[in-house]
Amino acid sequence: MAWTRKPDRHKGKSKTRTTGRCLAALVWTMLLTPHGAQAAIYSYVDQHGTVHFTNVPNDPRYKPEVIRRPQIRAAVRSARAGDPRLYEEHIQRAASRYEMDPLLIKAVIKAESNFDCMAVSSKGAQGLMQLMPGTAADLNVWNPFDPKENIFGGTNYLSQMMARFGGNLRLALAAYNAGPGKVEAAQGIPLIPETQQYVIKVIQHYRQMTAAGSPSSRWLGAAN
């Protein structure tokens, strides 16, 4: 399995999408190794400045490195692009399937993971839209680090919250963060600082994206 990382000046839509998939697959494989294990990584830099990594070297230019799990995680954190364009196609298709505003999906992803498909929270939420394992299973998301699965699952869940709370964006976002039961028990946004800040953050991102992209975003009126 291999992936490449090109200099910024070479980045294009198709290249970055492919790079993102390969990186996620490679990292997923490495992180499944036993705790404390070492992973053999091979790399080289070609004449264009593109960095190539693999765990199965098929080119004599590859040089071996042995990297421990903490180093892999650090390398992944520095390599992940966090570029919304990597996921544009999945966002648009999920928005169409679940009748959601793609800018709202992007705002949630921005607040949840900053477009880091390998993000894991301290509570165990995973991937772009930070799905908890139980929620992911309920949504038939079997690999939460797969961008397509995560975005479709997260958008599905967000659309369910919007329907459950009558299109009230603030309550739907609070439910996405804290769970619908807590919102219903509180009959509003629960008095949980994290949830209250989360709602504010997503709506801020949504407004900014709306101003930069589409002034007629579907759910913005529900944020007032």
The CATH architecture of the largest domain can be given as Orthogonal Bundle
| Largest β-sheet summary | 4 strands, antiparallel
Q: Please mark out the parts with pLDDT under 50 across 5 or more consecutive residues, or reply none.
A: 5-22, 31-37
Strand/helix succession:
EHEEEHHHHHHHH
Count every helix, treating DSSP H or I runs of 4 or more residues as helices: 9
β-sheet strand percentage: 5-15%
Number of strands: 4
Helicity level: 40-55%
Specify Rg, calculated over alpha carbons: 19 Å
Query: In order across it, which strands form the biggest sheet?
Result: 1-3-2-4
Shape: elongated
The structure class reads alpha+beta
Give the class-level CATH name of the largest domain.
Mainly Alpha
Under CATH, the topology of the largest domain can be stated as: Lysozyme
Number of domains: 2
First-residue to last-residue Cα separation: 48 Å
Averaged pLDDT, please? 78
